[in-house]
From TrEMBL:
Residues 592-785 form the Transketolase-like pyrimidine-binding domain. One of its GO terms (biological process) is glycolytic process. Its cofactor is thiamine diphosphate. It comes from the Bacteria. E1 component of the 2-oxoglutarate dehydrogenase (OGDH) complex which catalyzes the decarboxylation of 2-oxoglutarate, the first step in the conversion of 2-oxoglutarate to succinyl-CoA and CO(2). This is 2-oxoglutarate dehydrogenase E1 component. Its EC number is 1.2.4.2. It comes from Aliidiomarina minuta.
Length: 934
């Protein structure tokens, strides 16, 4: 409002000057929530000096005095009546109190056991109001009930219905006024009683009948079998179908679902359309898994197509283990890959839905990490729908003070200002309304939204449990409590929408459908071919043919391209030196270092149409200042990625510095890689031992996902590893753990020692038609080691050598000892061997420890069949590194009658010593032990 207009408005007002307190209270209300006051007040307060910007309180108060002096009058001021004007403010405060805290008095618990503390703010007395004021009419401010003013009795009744019924809306923690107004308009306009057609309400009853019917059927047919029943949370089936329908109507083409065990079988049958007979076969132990190890039925995923008014939607239920919340970032990664494949930047075509237990969402740290990813550049998916199946007990822990340190299990979502809608699972229509509201909010604001489905579990943690042992009062109540289907059927019968005979027939029809074993989901559609084709990678083994050769001329041209910097782009002096050296490497004036060769690998791939996605906490620059893929202009902080400018029509490349997270980020990248075989997907650890923080992802997904679930994944892990005297942390990437998990050709584990090797290893990972993880022990000191260099011809060869034999000229017949090694220690061994002129010792590098390259090793050892003395040398302690997990491969490779010995550090609980002097002493000893023939 301009000054002249404001003055005219002030002069036209009629409020007595003594009402400065009224204005101040309105201002306090405005500070809490700008949408709580009327438009004119908001416009006025918006025009005042911004609070928190060094504005004296006296200046604001002077403006209040000016308003009062000019006899300010607002709608609802009741002609200057001071008492009524003060009550007007109290009414607006009451409205605001319900918006903030009404959820604490909402009717959310189907069992009626959940008793929340009384909230004084929600009483009339607290606001100096009473029922005596019920007939007085007040301005409703921004309360969206379809009129500007109403009697206090009607306002109070409306607030109770809106905020204290079956839905408890928590959204006032959101700072965006636009988002709060949007939610208020949608929630308040319904007066807590959304209206649906007869057709929709009967469909809800049918869905509840299916949810209840499946559980009863399984309970009678397979008594005592674990199924993690949905009973008590039956409305989840209606919620899921409502979300998918609404998503499809608004443009979604794919929905990816992540959920743990509770209700999973029910969702599989009654939402995704899995044939019941297939499930029955699994219960009977008849399912075939071929050569795979398989998994229990409530871990398995599923895919189908689902018919909506907006077209068919492809559904994918993610496989996941018992580590509950770990599947959530996997789902997000899968959705991101699907978005990018479709050219969707806002998430409108791909929808993530994740289901959580109330104990898990509050208790599992990966949830904080996943929420933290939600709005970042590298990991955003346009918002997620997060459903908490809140059965109010985690295994046997039920008391709130034992389960969490917050009032609600969903309070963690407030860290990203996600709205939270608590809803009573025994009110299916409220569940439907909240589901539609959640989709619309997510699509409008591209942010996460949480639905807290407050329910119960009719049995124990699983069907073999005895829940009365730990929750006696709750389970006495549950035993007497009717199922949701019965409650809703009674409600529809009373509304004359259906009769009892039809209700019974609905139950029988569903049971008959289960007996037939065919699909019971009306919306199920035969699955069509989708935009990603995995067929080129299925059933291929490591030795499948591929061609990775390139000409030296082409590599030199790429080297020049990746070394070009835009005119006027000012580099940091140290970075500029790196690029000056790279230009010399491209011209053949210098041999290539690690950073140049690695960057050339990426350039060669994107030039020929292979997308690349790299994520890590320092991936743009590289933790050890070696990559410098993302350049920063020292003048204006603008960034430039040379790899995006190597050729016309090249594939895209994204390199992101990620949030400070290992578990959620690695899981996200796993999910991305399982949905996108045509992208080289890389997660780089800042230091290799940081992979510890993502051990669940490594154990449950990367190492075993193909064996358990048949899920192919080409994710590459770059894990800096090497003993440089830096202490127990940041020395070891825990190579032994990866080798211990190595079996069934599940992944490859490599320790490359030259730039040419890393170049050809990365190209092999993407060009070879095999999609399995690649685990790389990348170096630190070798990044700038004068001997760790390669020439263009070595890169152009296009071959990653799993084994590299002796490179120094030797008379092989005189060799008495062969030392096997891998990684940085090779250069220490070679230096000492040369200095001591130990020509009777040959050094063989094992560049790929798994799958062990028996054929290549046999070829390298052809000239050493006379040798009886073989040694494995490693930097790591004896109980770590490759020794325990790989010695059987070494023993198989050496000639008959030869002996294999160990040279390395003694076994240790710690990865490395903490003192540089002791480290040096140990390093010298292990090198001498390896080279000294006894």
């Amino acid at each position: 409002m301009q000054d002249g207009a404001m003055q005219a408005w002030l002069e036209s007002s009629h409020l007595a000057g003594g009402n400065i307190g009224y204005v101040e209270e309105l201002f306090e209300l405005y500070l809490d929530d700008p949408s709580a006051v009327g438009d004119e007040w908001r416009e006025l307060f918006d025009s005042m000096p911004a609070v928190g910007k060094d504005v004296k309180h006296s200046e604001i108060r002077d403006q209040f005095r000016e308003m009062a002096k000019n006899k300010l009058k607002m709608a609802g001021s009741q002609g200057g009546n001071s008492e009524t004007s003060e009550k007007q403010v109290k009414v607006l405060q009451l409205i605001n109190a319900y918006r903030f805290r009404g959820h604490q008095h909402a009717n959310l618990d189907p069992l009626g056991l959940w008793k929340q503390d009384e909230v004084p703010d929600l009483s009339l007395d607290h606001h100096a109001l009473s029922k005596d004021d019920y007939d007085t009419e007040f301005n409703v401010g921004s309360l969206a009930i379809g009129k500007d003013s109403a009697k206090l009795g009607d306002i109070h009744s409306a607030l109770e219905k809106i905020y204290c019924g079956s839905i408890g809306a928590e959204y006032m923690h959101i700072t965006s006024t636009e988002e709060k107004r949007w939610i208020q308009q949608r929630v308040e306009s319904q007066l807590g009683q959304p209206e649906f057609s007869k057709e929709v309400r009967l469909r809800l009853l049918k869905e509840l009948t299916a949810a209840d019917g499946l559980e009863k059927y399984l309970g009678s047919k397979y008594p005592g079998a674990k199924r993690f029943s949905l009973e008590g949370g039956d409305s989840l089936v209606s919620m899921m179908k409502a979300l998918i329908h609404r998503g499809g109507e608004t443009g979604a083409k794919e929905v990816v679902v992540g959920m743990a065990h509770r209700g999973r079988l029910n969702v599989l049958i009654n939402v995704l359309g899995k044939h019941p007979q297939e499930l029955f076969n699994e219960f009977a132990g008849k399912a075939s898994i071929g050569e795979k190890s398989g998994d229990v039925k409530y871990h398995m995923g599923f895919s189908s197509d689902f018919k909506t008014e907006g077209g068919d939607v492809h559904l994918a239920l993610a496989f996941n283990p018992s580590h509950l919340e770990i599947v959530n970032p996997v789902v997000m990664g899968s959705v991101r890959a699907r978005m990018e494949r479709r050219g969707c930047t806002d998430g409108s075509q791909a929808l993530p839905i994740t289901l959580h237990g109330d104990a898990a969402i509050a208790g599992q740290g990966v949830m904080q990490e996943t929420f933290n990813l939600s709005q970042t550049r590298a990991f955003s998916v346009g918002g997620s729908i997060r459903i908490v199946v809140n059965n109010q007990v985690g295994f046997t822990t039920s008391k709130r003070e034992d389960a969490r340190s917050t009032q609600y299990c969903t309070d963690i979502a407030k860290m990203v200002q996600a709205p939270i809608f608590h809803v009573n699972a025994d009110d299916p229509e409220a569940v439907l309304f909240v589901s539609q509201l959640a989709i619309d909010y997510r699509n409008t604001f591209k942010r996460d939204v949480v639905i807290d489905l407050v329910c119960y579990r009719r049995h124990g943690h699983n069907e073999a449990d005895e829940p009365n042992a730990t929750q006696p009062l709750m389970y006495q109540k549950i035993k007497k409590h009717p199922v949701t289907r019965e409650l809703y059927a009674k409600r529809l019968i009373e509304a004359n929408l259906i009769d009892e005979k039809s209700v019974k027939q609905m139950v029988q029809d569903y049971r008959d459908a289960l007996d037939k074993g065919d699909c019971v989901v009306d919306e199920w559609q035969p699955m069509k071919a989708h935009s990603v084709d995995w067929s080129p990678f299925i059933d291929n083994e490591w030795d499948v043919d591929y061609d990775s050769k390139m000409t030296v001329t082409e590599l030199e041209d790429l080297g020049r391209k990746i070394s070009e910097i835009p005119e006027g782009f000012k580099l940091n002096s140290r970075v500029n030196k790196v690029y000056e050296e790279r230009r010399k490497m491209a011209e053949g004036e210098r041999k290539m270092d690690w950073g140049m060769a690695e960057t050339l690998a990426y350039a060669s791939l994107v030039k020929h149409g292979h997308r690349i996605r790299m994520v890590g906490q320092d991936s743009g620059r590289g933790t050890f200042f070696h990559r410098h893929a993302v350049l920063h202009n020292q003048k204006d902080a603008e960034t430039y990625l040379p790899l995006k400018h190597v050729a016309e029509n090249q594939a895209d490349i994204d390199i992101y510095d990620s949030v400070l997270s290992e578990e959620a980020v690695m899981a996200f990248e796993y999910g991305y890689a399982t949905a996108e075989p045509n992208t080289l997907t890389i997660w780089e650890a800042q230091f290799g031992d940081f992979a510890n923080g993502a051990q669940v992802v490594i154990d449950q997904f990367l190492s075993s996902g193909e064996q358990k679930w048949g899920r192919l994944c080409g994710l590459t892990l770059l894990l800096p590893h090497g003993y440089e005297g830096q202490g127990p942390e940041h020395s070891s990437a825990r190579l032994e753990r990866f080798l211990q998990l190595s079996a069934d050709h599940n992944w490859s584990v490599c320790t490359p020692t030259t730039p040419a090797q890393v170049y050809n290893m990365l190209r092999r990972q993407q060009i070879r038609p095999v999609r399995r993880p690649l685990i790389v022990m990348t170096p630190k000191s070798l990044l700038r080691h004068p001997d760790a260099v390669s020439n263009m011809e070595e890169l152009a060869e296009g071959v990653f050598h799993n084994v590299i034999g002796e490179i120094d000229k030797q008379d092989t017949k005189k060799v008495k000892r062969v030392v096997f090694c891998g990684g940085k220690v090779y250069y220490d061994l070679r230096k000492a061997r040369r200095e001591q002129e130990l020509n009777e010792v040959a050094i063989v590098r094992v560049e790929q420890l798994y799958p062990f390259p028996h054929q290549e090793m046999a070829k390298v050892l052809e000239d050493y069949q006379h040798v009886k003395d073989f040694v494995w040398c490693q930097e790591e302690p004896q109980n770590q590194g490759a020794w325990y997990c790989s010695q059987h491969h070494f023993r198989e490779a050496i000639p008959d009658g030869a002996k294999l010995n160990y040279a390395g550090r003694n076994a240790s609980a710690s990865p490395a010593v903490g003192y540089a002097s002791v480290h040096k002493e140990q390093q010298e000893k292990l090198v001498n032990d390896a080279l000294t023939i006894k």
